[in-house]
Each structure stands twice: as structure tokens, then as C-alpha cells.
């Protein structure tokens, strides 16, 4: 048995070392295969699940991993030619999928299977869900329209694919760069300058600061100079201005596509598939939460205003208001003064390797998994680590995960999980194993220190690991029901759930050790972190409300000419309480969610948090945060079904009742009474 599993694992390792020519050839091969399968299905004279639905699903099982892999390389490769080839391959594959989804002859065969209600009832639940999902996808792709209408919709969606890829490429490739003297960066710790590149300008040494997260965030949090913070925010918001035009066009095209399908707005089209179901449900949720958060934010703003007024008075300058570049700095200052939280001190206890191992141990214990690090792994960059994931009792291999945690030129600039291959069942009964990668941009190690994380970075890693293990734990027959098929206003729930362990003192003290001395993090420091958890929660969560309401403002409208930039700036100031000033630039240009699959779905972050807080309070706090039986219940009901089951069903099974928002409201400090 062990030997067989070792052979399977070896065979499951993917090849990320692709040349541009190999990427192009793979895309051509995959699209040709896709057409061949669809032609065969369309030719069926007596369509059944076995000769129609199953071949289309097996195509996803077999093609999906290779297609995702060659598209993934644009986010990670150090070779621009490879990134460009990957981007072009993604476009070709997306256009091929779109064309296939709009074939009326294939839809005719699928519809006949759905019309056979007796045959449908005889199918296993997942097979029946698959047939229904496919039919729904075809309908939402326009197969109920006339040939002329379909041609128009196809043209619209082709352009949307092109816009999305161009937006992503611009965001990945364009880095803002600013040069500052040491005085202009006053407030930043000595470690920030360790091995930092410098340039000499007119005889003055200046430090190179980019808009990569490890450069940008510390400046926004700690630089005392308002002018410095303003310059950095401006650099971030002006680094790819062409993206505003791309998003503006996409918004208009999405509305046009929705109208062609009989919906009033793009949001109405998207939300039909989500838990929320309607734009009114989302807007009511956001409105209610905003009102509750405004109460918290009133006192938080007063506190921040007092700090800034004092700074202006000390500098003999006139106070003119609070600006976007003030938010992180003064929020951090309040946390330091009220709770004695010193981020530089905290970082000394969060070296990336023990933190990673500690986080894996959390998942290992609760979900009964085992992670084996692969030595000399076949990866796309030397920074990347690879793990095999097994059942804790060695009974089964589950998949591969990759951690790519540090920034580099051309790499995706935020934190995310890329599902590279979905798990599925092969026709011979064996499994194709899931593969996924975390992409992050944490501070890199230097010659004198390992990579040190802030506590926020630790929470981010817990969050992304939640997505990663959700993907790995899905146990469905069909790849069709992988991570990307989970309802978008639930998909953040499993990742948000595990953020809670990052605030548990007993957990932190297991893996937070000083990188020099090996001393465990002091209890008083942990207590300070926990006490500061909800500091600024009103303003922080209002920013999330803003992103969600901006998303709805541009996607739940019947106005094809809604001004993306003006809407973003106006709503940001109204909701977050901070002004954008009069300068150029717009954060929407780098708001990748709007072109990365979260259009009309950003509300899902807060919506899903309501569920994750409920699950944590109801089951894990009650049963014990390391209770493996609770963990296995969670794995079975929430993770394993993937998108094969409506999320509300698994949620109610796990909770033993309908979900409640009480724990969520309590967790962010507003409570039910407000």
C-alpha cells in the first residue's frame, strides 16, 4: 500500500517549467481536444447522462489542471516571455470555453438529458447536481437566445475576457517607485533599511521604495511625514491609470450582457447564483452594517482627529482634515498608545518558517491531516516550498500545496490562493489529486534576519491557508465542483474561520518564538495583541462596506455610463470618513477583485464572516478550539462537498440550526442592540 501511494504521489507532481512555445502548444492542444469532445456530444442522437453530461465533465477533469497551470504561470514566472505566453494562453482557453458554452447543438443534447425527469431521478445526487449545473450554465451563457442575439453576446463576452486579462497584466507588471531620504522616512525602523537599494540624486542618498506590500504598508503605517505617506499612496493609485478605462468599459459591457439575458443589472445576474439571491438583500445587509459601524466610527474618528491636530500644532501647521494616507498611520498610532502594541517588537516572534509550521500544525490537528515537506521540489522559483498532504493516519494521499510567499518583479502583487488542479475521480476508480498554491508578498529575509511577519501577516497566512485546505479537502467525483464553484458569498467563510486561531493565546504561544533567542512570545505581549483586536474595528469594517457598496454602485445600476472613478472617490469619502484630497489617481485602478471574479460579489467578505463567526462561537468555542471531532464534522459538512451542495445546507448541518449574525456583530464590537 505504501509503495503504491508513493508512486501515485510522484505521478501527481506537476511540471511548472514551461517555455513560451510549450505553453502555446499546450493551449492549442487543449482547445482542439475541447472542440473534439463537444463535437462528439453534439452528434449524439439519443443523449443520456453517460454519453452527454459525463464526457463534458470528464473533459473538465482531464483538461482543467493543465489549463489552470499554464494560465497560472503569468502570476509567478520570472521570465516575462513566459508570463506573456501564459496570458495569451489564458485568453485562448477562455475564448474556447466561451465558444463551447454557447454551442446550441451541445445545449440541445444537454437539455434532452434534463428533460428526461425519470432518468434524472435515477442519478446519484452529485451526478444530478452536475447535470442541473451544466444546464444552468448553458442558459446563463445565452442558449435561450436567438442566433443573432447569441452572436452579439459572444462578442461582448469575448471583449470582457480580453479586458480582464489586460487589467491583471497591468496590475502585475506595473510597480510604482519613489525615492526618499532617511529623514523623509522618519518613523520607519532600522530593519526597513537593511539591504534596501539606494540611488544618489544631486549628491543625496535616497532609498528606493516600491509599491510592493512589504515596502508600501510599513510606510503607510509608520512614516511620520504626511507628505511621504501621500506620495506613496499616490504612487500606488497612479501606477496603472489605464485600468480605469478598462474597468469602465467592463462595467458597461457587463450591464449589456445582463440585459441581453433578461436581467435589469449585472448584479441581478450574478447574485441569482449566490446565497444572497438579490441585490436588495445585499444592499440591506450593507446598509444595516454601515449604520451599526458608524456608531463605533464616530468615537474612533474623534480620537484620530485629536492625534492629527496635535501633530499639526506641534509642526506649526494648519489642520485641514483626515485623508486616505492618514488612515493606517493614525490607526496604528492609536493601537500603540492605547494597547502598547509595538509591531517591530511583535515581528521578532513571527519568523516565517516556525509560523508556517505552526499554522500547518493547527490544520493538521483539527482536520486530521499530515503535511510532509518535499525536499528539492519541482517548483517555479527557489523561494517556493511544496508539501504533500495526507490523511493523518496515512490511509490516503490528498494533494499537493505550494507556498510562494515573497515578492518579486512580475509576480501577482497581493495575497491569494490559486487552485491549479481540482480533485476528481477517474474512470478506473483512481483519483486525480488537487493542487493549489498560496501567493503572498511578505517581507523577504535579509542577510541578518529571517523573514519576519507582522501579526496581520500571520492572520493573512491563516486566511489563505483556509482557502488552500478547503481546496485540498474537497472530495467530489467531478472537478466541476472544485473550489471555484463554491458560492461566492460563502467561499471566504472557511478562510475567515481559521483567522480566529491567530487570536488565541494558547495557539500563538505554541509557534511564536523569538528568532534570535527561541523565547516564546511573552503572555503580556499576546494579551496586548488580543486587547487591540477590535481597535479601529468601526473604521476598518467601514472600508470593507465601502468596497462592497462601490461594487454594487457600479454593477447594480441600469446606467451604462456610471462614472467608475467619480463613484469610487465619492463613496470612499462618504463611507470611510477620510478624504482623497484633490490629487490624481484612483484606487479602483488596482482593485483587482473587480476584474478578478468578485464583480457584484465583494460584499461576500462580510457576508461570509457572519457565518464563520457563528461556526467558531457555536461549535469550536463550545467544543474546544482543538477538538478534532468538531474539525472532522466541519471538514465533512463544509469542506468536502465543494460546490456540489448549496452552502446553506452544509452550514445548517454543521450548526444544527439556521445561521445567526449575533456572533459576527459581537466579534466586531457592535452587538445586536445597536
Annotation keywords:
7% strand, 10 strands, single chain, 674 residues
Order of strands, widest sheet? 4-5-6-10-7
* Alpha-beta content class: alpha+beta
Largest sheet features: 5 strands, mixed
| Share of β-strand residues | 5-15%
Q: Unreliable runs, pLDDT <50, ≥5 residues?
A: 1-8
Rg, nearest Å: 25 Å
Broad shape: globular
Distance between the termini: 59 Å
Q: How would you state the average pLDDT, rounded? A: 94
In percent, how helical is the residue content?
Answer: 55-70%
Number of strands: 10
Describe the structure in your own words.
The protein has helices at 2-12, 20-42, 49-72, 80-101, 104-115, 117-122, 125-143, 147-173, 190-193, 213-222, 226-237, 242-260, 266-271, 279-314, 327-339, 343-347, 352-367, 455-473, 493-497, 505-511, 523-531, 537-555, 564-576, 604-623, 628-639, 647-655, 662-667, and strands at residues 177-180, 198-201, 204-210, 369-373, 385-391, 397-404, 416-421, 424-425, 431-432, 435-439. Helix 3 runs antiparallel to helix 4 (80-101), helix 4 (80-101) packs antiparallel against helix 8 and helix 14 crosses helix 22. A hairpin with a 2-residue loop joins strand 2 and strand 3. The chain is α+β, with helices and mostly antiparallel strands and 674 residues long. The chain is built from 27 helices and ten strands.
Task: Explain briefly what this protein structure is.
The protein has 674 residues and is of the alpha+beta class.
Amino acid at each position: 500500500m505504501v509503495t503504491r501511494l508513493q508512486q501515485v504521489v510522484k505521478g501527481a507532481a506537476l511540471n511548472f517549467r514551461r517555455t513560451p512555445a510549450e505553453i502555446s502548444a499546450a493551449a492549442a492542444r487543449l482547445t482542439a481536444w475541447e472542440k473534439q469532445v463537444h463535437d462528439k456530444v453534439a452528434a449524439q442522437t439519443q443523449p443520456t447522462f453517460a454519453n452527454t453530461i459525463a464526457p463534458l465533465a470528464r473533459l473538465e477533469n482531464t483538461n482543467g489542471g493543465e489549463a489552470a497551470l499554464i494560465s497560472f504561470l503569468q502570476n509567478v514566472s520570472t521570465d516575462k516571455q513566459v508570463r506573456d505566453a501564459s496570458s495569451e494562453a489564458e485568453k485562448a482557453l477562455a475564448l474556447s470555453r466561451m465558444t463551447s458554452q454557447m454551442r446550441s447543438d451541445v445545449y440541445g443534447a444537454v437539455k434532452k438529458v434534463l428533460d428526461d425527469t425519470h432518468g434524472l431521478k435515477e442519478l446519484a445526487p452529485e451526478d444530478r447536481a452536475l447535470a442541473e449545473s451544466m444546464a444552468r450554465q448553458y442558459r446563463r451563457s445565452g442558449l435561450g437566445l436567438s442566433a443573432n442575439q447569441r452572436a452579439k453576446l459572444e462578442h461582448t463576452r469575448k471583449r470582457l475576457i480580453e479586458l480582464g486579462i489586460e487589467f491583471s497584466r497591468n496590475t502585475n507588471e506595473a510597480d510604482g517607485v519613489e525615492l526618499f531620504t532617511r529623514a523623509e522616512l522618519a518613523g520607519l525602523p532600522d530593519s526597513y533599511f537593511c539591504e534596501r537599494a539606494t540611488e544618489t540624486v544631486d549628491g543625496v542618498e535616497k532609498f528606493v521604495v516600491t509599491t510592493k506590500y512589504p515596502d508600501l504598508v510599513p510606510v503607510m503605517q509608520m512614516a511620520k511625514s504626511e507628505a511621504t505617506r501621500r506620495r506613496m499612496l499616490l504612487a500606488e493609485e497612479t501606477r496603472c491609470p489605464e485600468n480605469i478605462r478598462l474597468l469602465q468599459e467592463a462595467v458597461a459591457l457587463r450591464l449589456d450582457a445582463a440585459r441581453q439575458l433578461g436581467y435589469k443589472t449585472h448584479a441581478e445576474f450574478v447574485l441569482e447564483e449566490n446565497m444572497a439571491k438579490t441585490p436588495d438583500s445585499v444592499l440591506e445587509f450593507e446598509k444595516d452594517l454601515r449604520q451599526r459601524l458608524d456608531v463605533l466610527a464616530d468615537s474612533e474618528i474623534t480620537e484620530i482627529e485629536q492625534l492629527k491636530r496635535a501633530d499639526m500644532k506641534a509642526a506649526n501647521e494648519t489642520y485641514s482634515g483626515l485623508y486616505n494616507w492618514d488612515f493606517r498611520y493614525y490607526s496604528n498610532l492609536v493601537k500603540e498608545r492605547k494597547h502598547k502594541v509595538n509591531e517591530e517588537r511583535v515581528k521578532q516572534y513571527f519568523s516565517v518558517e516556525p509560523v508556517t509550521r505552526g499554522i500547518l500544525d493547527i490544520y493538521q490537528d483539527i482536520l486530521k491531516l499530515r503535511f510532509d515537506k518535499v525536499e528539492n521540489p519541482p517548483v517555479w522559483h527557489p523561494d517556493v516550498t511544496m508539501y504533500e498532504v495526507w490523511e493523518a493516519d496515512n490511509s490516503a494521499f490528498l494533494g499537493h500545496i505550494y507556498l510562494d510567499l515573497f515578492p518579486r518583479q512580475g509576480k501577482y502583487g497581493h495575497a491569494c490562493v490559486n487552485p491549479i488542479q481540482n480533485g476528481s475521480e477517474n474512470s478506473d476508480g483512481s483519483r486525480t489529486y488537487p493542487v493549489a498554491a498560496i501567493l503572498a508578498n511578505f517581507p523577504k529575509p535579509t542577510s541578518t534576519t529571517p523573514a519576519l511577519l507582522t501579526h496581520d501577516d500571520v492572520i493573512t497566512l491563516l486566511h489563505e491557508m483556509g482557502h488552500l485546505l478547503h481546496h485540498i479537502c474537497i472530495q467530489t467525483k467531478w472537478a466541476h465542483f472544485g473550489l471555484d464553484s463554491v458560492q461566492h458569498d460563502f467561499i471566504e467563510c472557511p478562510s475567515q474561520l481559521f483567522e480566529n486561531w491567530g487570536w488565541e493565546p494558547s495557539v500563538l504561544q505554541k509557534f511564536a518564538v523569538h528568532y534570535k533567542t527561541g523565547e516564546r512570545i511573552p503572555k503580556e505581549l499576546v494579551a496586548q495583541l488580543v486587547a487591540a483586536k477590535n481597535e479601529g474595528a468601526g473604521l476598518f469594517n467601514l472600508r470593507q462596506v465601502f468596497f462592497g457598496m462601490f461594487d454594487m454602485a457600479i454593477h447594480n445600476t441600469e446606467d451604462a455610463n456610471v462614472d467608475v472613478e467619480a463613484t469610487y472617490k465619492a463613496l470612499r469619502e462618504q463611507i470611510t470618513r477620510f478624504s482623497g484630497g484633490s490629487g490624481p489617481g484612483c484606487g479602483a485602478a488596482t482593485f483587482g477583485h473587480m476584474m478578478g471574479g468578485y464583480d457584484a460579489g465583494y460584499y461576500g467578505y462580510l457576508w461570509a464572516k457572519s457565518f464563520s463567526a457563528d461556526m467558531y462561537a457555536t461549535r469550536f468555542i463550545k467544543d474546544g478550539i482543538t477538538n478534532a471531532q468538531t474539525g472532522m464534522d466541519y471538514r465533512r459538512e463544509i469542506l468536502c462537498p465543494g460546490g456540489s451542495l448549496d452552502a446553506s445546507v452544509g452550514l445548517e448541518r454543521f450548526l444544527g440550526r439556521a445561521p445567526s449574525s449575533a456572533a459576527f456583530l459581537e466579534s466586531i464590537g457592535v452587538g445586536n442592540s445597536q
